[in-house]
Specification:
The chain is α/β, with parallel strands linked by helices. It folds into 2 domains: about 80 residues, no CATH class; about 375 residues, Aldolase class I (TIM Barrel, Alpha-Beta Barrel), CATH 3.20.20. About 40% of the residues lie in helices and about 10% in strands. It contains 21 helices and 15 strands. Strands 4-13-12-11-10-7-6-5 form an 8-stranded parallel beta sheet. Strands 1-14-15 form a 3-stranded antiparallel beta sheet. Strands 2-3 form a two-stranded antiparallel sheet. Helix 15 crosses helix 18. The chain is globular and about 100 Å long. The N and C termini lie far apart (about 55 Å).
């Protein structure tokens, strides 16, 4: 309302000065002309739906676009902290924005990256390159005990909760997912009406707070879970063990963001800060985790059930592998969340120094599953700054089957990295529960951008694989991904890292894994 009143006041001022110019003196036109210009621009900004920041900040919002247009001169590169040494830089961010807007993402004058820098990575291409196949690849999720397998896209929306994100942002993400046929992870905040409105496929994430399926005292409620897990839109169920940006910490939703709508979705009191416990009450050992997976699979009618974690101690994950072998209960998928993942509310020390980066975590999980003979029926997802096609290809070469993205999808719905997520004052309506701010996010426009981003990014990944002379993503190997390890030396991932043969841990553990394998237990983490 304030925005409309401000623009209306400018229009009123324009009319008054025009009257004075005709009645008193033509000199009043000096005031009338700029007021008229501001009034026209302000009205246009309020009525347009393409730019959220202009809808919330008419006229003033243009200053940001002006600065953005000259950013090479003022050095605004938006290079962010990243624990694996590969920055989510301006070039990547701009590629995401351009693809989301349906623009041609061609960069003139070559790469902005230093190809001679240690850590630079590149793929081995082939002189017998192929045309990208027309068929869109899918990954079948569902092991022997799954009755309703799901065909997962290569690139999906990672976990972002309603509450952390506005209803409009959730709607846009889900609408884009429905249009593009990819999955939308709900985050641990439960299934809201905004997740259901457009019919997009859902991965229902169950965190330690059991939001949407919790008892009054915060424990797991099987009856509430059953009612929602059997919804047609729920394609998979994911148990959140830990989150990359803050492993070992539960989620936090500040009280001012807990509206009646969020409270109903989560099953919590209105206006009170919601803190998830750091660990689950439904299980406390690897064996109990497997039993909980079996229970959720049964209650959901046989849908795929898996878990998400940021990898910590290798011994603890090997304990899960031992529990799977001991119980015969296997997850249908495991999502590895990298420590470089972002969040709107986490201590800086946790973001920078706790948890394993995605590269190391992903390879550890893949090797552990191969070494214990479990990899065949368990699909592995990778989540952590997956933004462009090369990220998808790299993660699959490192052991993933599919990927998920949060920050890139936030860019698609209008995020400008204002870093006000925790204040409820997001300027573009993405991470706020203030209806006046959230209204700036136009759902149909941003849904199209989510769809465009996913479609273009997968197309880019398909073309990279074809340029490598491969017929499918299944043919990717660590030997095809190169890394510069010194100024004058590169090596492949097959040379740089240890890759376990099938059943190696069970039959004859290598010395580098033996101590952790022997100490790992299905009876305790």
């Amino acid at each position: 309302m304030i925005r409309w009143l401000a623009v209306a006041a400018v229009w009123l001022g324009t009319i008054v000065t025009l009257v004075l110019a005709f009645v008193v003196s033509p000199w009043w036109l000096l005031f009338a002309a700029p007021l008229c210009a501001f009034a026209i621009v302000g009205a246009h900004d309020l009525l347009q739906r393409r730019h959220s920041i202009l809808r919330n900040y008419p006229v003033l919002g243009h200053a940001r676009f002006l600065l953005e247009s000259i950013r090479p001169e003022i050095g605004q590169y938006f290079i962010e902290r990243n624990t694996d040494g590969t920055p989510f830089d301006r070039e990547t961010r701009d590629t995401v924005y351009e693809r989301a807007k349906g623009l041609k993402d061609v960069e003139p004058f070559g790469t902005e990256r230093d190809v001679n820098a240690v850590g630079y990575e590149f793929f081995r291409h082939s002189l017998l390159a192929r045309a990208a196949p027309e068929a869109i690849p899918r990954v079948r999720i569902g092991g022997p005990d799954c009755l309703q397998p799901y065909d997962m896209a290569l690139y999906n929306v990672s976990a972002m909760s309603f509450g952390a994100l506005s209803g409009n942002a959730i709607e846009a993400l889900n609408s884009g997912a429905a249009r593009g046929g990819f999955a939308h992870d709900t985050g641990e905040g439960g299934i809201s009406p905004y997740h259901l409105k457009h019919g997009g496929d859902l991965i229902w994430e169950i965190g330690s707070g059991y939001f949407g399926c919790r008892t009054a005292d915060g424990h797991f409620d099987p009856d509430l879970f059953t009612a929602k897990a059997q919804l047609a839109q729920v394609k998979c169920v994911s148990i959140k063990i830990s989150q990359g940006a803050k492993p070992g910490l539960g989620g936090v939703l500040p009280g001012p963001k807990v509206s009646p709508e969020i409270a109903e979705t989560r099953g919590v009191p209105v206006g009170q800060t919601v803190v998830s416990p750091p660990s689950h009450s439904a299980f406390g050992t690897p064996r109990e985790l497997c039993e909980f997976i079996a229970e959720l699979r049964r209650l959901s009618g046989g849908k795929p059930v898996g878990f998400k974690l940021c990898v910590g101690a290798r011994r603890e994950f090997l304990g899960i592998c031992k529990a799977i072998r001991a119980t015969g209960i296997s997850p249908d998928f495991i999502i590895v969340d990298g420590a470089e993942g972002g969040t709107g509310a986490a201590p800086l020390e946790f973001e920078d120094h706790v948890g394993m980066p995605l590269t190391e975590g992903l390879m550890l999980v893949h090797n552990a599953l191969v070494g214990t003979g479990l990899r065949k029926h368990i699909k592995v997802g990778a989540s952590g700054k997956v933004a462009i096609g090369s990220d998808i290809v790299k993660r699959i070469a490192q052991g993933a089957d599919f990927t998920l993205a949060a920050r890139a999808m936030m860019f698609a719905v209008g995020c400008i990295q204002a870093q006000r997520c925790h204040t409820n004052r997001c300027p573009v309506g993405v991470t706020t529960q203030d209806p006046r701010r959230a209204r700036a996010l136009d759902v149909p426009d941003k849904a199209s951008r989510v769809y465009n981003l996913q479609r273009s990014t997968v197309a880019s990944a398909r073309q990279i694989v074809a340029s490598m002379g491969l017929g499918s993503f299944d043919e990717l190997t660590p030997a095809m991904l190169n890394r510069r390890v010194a100024v004058h030396r590169t090596a492949t991932y097959a040379e740089l890292h240890e890759w376990l043969p099938q059943n190696a841990l069970v039959n004859d553990p290598p010395s580098t894994w033996r101590r952790d394998w022997e100490r790992a237990s299905a009876e305790h983490f």
